[in-house]
Amino acid sequence: MEDLTEPKDLRDWAARTFALPGLLLAAMLAAMIVAELQLNWVERIIGAYLVSTNSDRPESGAIWEKGRKARSARSAVERLASDREAYQRMARNAGNLSEIVGSLAPGQGAMLSAEHFRELYQKLPQGLAAEMISPFDLLRFATEGRWSRTYLEKASDGLMVYLLEPNNQVLRQFNVASAPLALLARRADAESQTLEHMPGFQGRIYAADRFFAALASLAEDERRGLVPQPERLLEVSGQITRVGLSDEALAGFVDIGFEVRTGSQSRVLLLQGQDWAVWRLRSLLEGKSPASRPAKSPLGGISPQ
Amino acid sequence: MTVWLRRFRTAFYLGLLLLGIAAAALWIFFFVTLRDLPQVPEPLSRIIETPPTEIYAASGERIMLIGGREAVPLSRVSPFFIQAVIATEDHRFWNHRGIDKLRLAKAFCVNLFGTGRVEGASTVTQQLAKNLFFTFQRTYQRKVRELLVALQIEARYGKNEILEAYLNQIAFGVGAHGVEQASQAFFGKPALQLNLAEAALLAGLPKSPTWYNPVRHFDRAKERQKVVLSRMVAVGSISAEEAAQAYQTRLNLRPPGRTEPAGSYFLDVVLKDLEERYGTDVVHHAGLKVFTTLDPQLQAWAAESVQSGLERLDQVLKVPAAVGGDPNAHPQAALVAIEAHSGAVRALMGGRDYEETEYNRATQNNRLPGSGFKPFLYYAAFEKKGLNPASVFVDRKVTIPVPGQPPWSPRNFSGEYEGPMILKRALSRSVNSIAAQLVERTGAQAVIDAARRCGINSPLAPVPSVALGTSGVSPLEIASAFATLAAGGVRHDPFFIRRVEDSAGRILEERIMSSRRTLDASTTFQVIDMMRAVLDEGTGNVIRQSGFHLPAAGKTGTTDDFKDAWFTGFTPTLSVSVWVGFDRGMSMRDPQGRGITGGRGAAPIWAEFMRKATAGEPQREFVVPSDIRFVQVVPTTGQPVLPWGSRGVDVALRAAQMQSLSPFSGGRDPGLAAGVQ
User: In whole angstroms, what is the distance from residue B386 CA to residue B677 CA?
Assistant: First the structure.
């Protein structure tokens, strides 16, 4: 049996080292090193292992951080753009200015074409329209051909309206104060309201038959002053049940609300009557003497009494 | 067994043990490191998906690209450039699997036994891994992590994909990321068209983009190009003859103004504005499209005018050439040009050289305007005290009592007093003693109110000397305030951005150019008419001598001890302010001791810029309000010139003010004529 004891001297140690098993081991090691240098198998194995575990590792590092920032930034911009588009869409589809005013939040704005603004302007209550800008000025701007767009911006104290040239240079700017805006907002809500729910009519709501009876007792010019476009009331489908007179006047006109019932639905149709005619009718309705005229409100209309 | 054999045996077994421990430690370290190793995105091209934020000039030309990449496939990159990069950065790129072991071993030896020299051995793949995932902190742990990611990238992607990703994200300085941007920025051509010389120059930049910037440091860049060419010869990409020929090839670098999309004073203001409104991340990562008011041609002329004006000033002041590079050692300048009828800022220079110093003297530098503030005083005096350009005051030594402070005794620039003169002459000659008398009458607050209505927003001290410009303002403010005068008293806020869109072209905001009348049109015109005389016969007459002859008005400004020199002037369409001075407020005097005034230091820059900016434009006059009449008066009495008398001075008077003049008696009405003020 071979002696497994330690080598006794260097010769013995060398003999054992350079024996076949040692040489085979050395050759194997050398082959591995040469193979590594030639074939890079260590890198390949480690790389393959890392590829296999890639999905389990964290999304960390500069490129991922940048990706997160980019996603967050893009979604912020997306919000801004879609908000703006929503306002623009709303403005494009709006049938009257009160819809736009009611939908804008302070600090936000909407761009309209000049033609669209002219359409909306024509639908405004007469007094408010004239107070915003003279129709003759609009006519002049439209004729000159420089007016291309209109920007409406809701401010805390009203609405700023900018008539713009194609390069966004302002042709004319004007502010519509909060009080007329409140009237506009009321008009926006009128479609789905009853008179009780609309501000400004409390205490001045009358049964329709009583209102029209009083109207019939007025002279023709007073009736025309009160309801300049009676054909609009004739076009109404449904029954007019009540009529309210507003406590605010604007540029000589007062809102008159006609509550129309269709089935179980109620809505209010707002028309403008001249303040002196409204005052005359109200005197009749309340049995007062029509001898004296009411004081003017700060808006230039009838003061609540 | 001998003693040494026992020792050898002990050492052998100890070595084996240590080797085992090291292997185990390496194993553990590998898995610990693996835990925090970042995930590699798939596909690798994802790294270039972020859309860039693009900034455009008013002309539609793109002037800056932030973030994002202009990625190009390898097939659209010059083979010379690919060879140059590989020869320089990693010549065994095609053979290794992420690590260049031989180079690593060599670097290890050099770093271990060398004399402090640090040699790197990062392969292209390692550099890509580092750029994508890691900071530039030098730690062994980071190196190992970087190496492991490199191995993964090599295992997952082909060499071409790796090289393409590397070439498209590498930084070349001047804001250019990726070879396509770099090629466009430095040579104005696509990366595919780079010749050997250009490719070698560009390939040398990533080592230190600022140090080797060929526009700034051409010699250094050429040296680096030589190194790159030598490497290409060493690895056999090109022959020595080709290298020598390439080195001799003349390089057509783009002009400096067009090779620095990374920044300019104008763009700094735009970026700051955008970041305040949208946030840094949105500006840098959301891919906005920003349309500015910048007129690239005016901007180029502004840069030229400032450069040449300062070079002339350097010669006058005998500033030693060796101080180049130190922004405090030579005078600086700022120029702002604003469109009078919109407020759009068309050009802005905030200093001599943006590369030298990014400090923006056009917007951040509130310097004393000196007499440049007097137009606001005269406007206030006309409006509040009913004076007019023909009102007569006596130029004499004055002392103004100031409550709680020593009396104020302003002296004239010349040190002399000329006696009675009309206000138009007093402004054109910038007479301080008469300005002091005016502010004593109007009060400082009226002057401040007039300045505020014009658009001055900086804090202004309510003291009489405010009328002589003793509160600091920026060139942007004063150009904008004079634009209000140029527009006949209609104020437009200055602005730099017309429109912002998202990457899909949806508008996020657009500028509404609103205005408001803040000054009376007729009084404004009277001030303008007086300021015209500054150019025609007053302290700014160098403008006319320089060959600028279009209708224009302006005012010089010089502060105590010649620390600041200003000229702000305008035509009916463009308002331009120029400031010149040292950053540290040193006095500007030539070797003979003569100081640099606004007329001597700033007005020539203004004149050169305006000559170029208005070349070919038709002559546009300032709009004369309907109630303005012109009359020739005697400059010392304010009385109309007699038909047979010598030529007087034209003054603009309102119709109502004409009534106080008696055209044929040679004087004003008795009450006014007696009242020399």
Answer: 13
Size of interface A-B (CB pairs under 8 A): 144
Q: Determine whether B505 is exposed, middle or buried from the number of CB atoms within 10 Å of its CB (0-12, 13-18, 19+).
A: exposed
Tell me the sheet residues that pair with B445.
none
Give the tokens for residue B192.
């595919």
Residue A64, phi then psi, degrees to nearest 5 = -70, -40
Indicate whether this model's pTM tops 0.80.
no
ipTM over the 0.90 cut-off = no
Please tell me if residue A15 touches chain B, with a CB cutoff of 8 Å. no
Contacts (Cβ under 8 Å, ≥6 apart) of A77:
B278, B282, B286, B288, B502, B503, B508
Do B37 and A8 count as a contact with CB atoms less than 8 A apart?
no
Task: Count CB atoms within 10 A of the CB of residue A258.
Answer: 22
Quick one: chain B helix, strand, coil %, rounded to 5?
45, 15, 40
Residue of B1, B155, B515 lying closest to A8 (CB–CB): B1
State pLDDT tens for residues B21-62: 999 998 888 888 888 899 998 877 666 567 889 999 999 988
- Mutation choice for B interface testing from A57, A65, A108 by most B CBs within 10 A: A57
Please, are residues B545 and B604 in contact by the beta-carbon 8 Å criterion?
A: no
User: Which among B42, B148, B512 has CB closest to A46?
Assistant: B148
- Paired with A106 in beta bridges are none
Q: CB-based burial of residue B650 (10 Å sphere; 0-12 exposed, 13-18 middle, 19+ buried)?
A: middle
- Cβ–Cβ below 8 Å for B132 and A80: no
Give the amino acid at B438. L
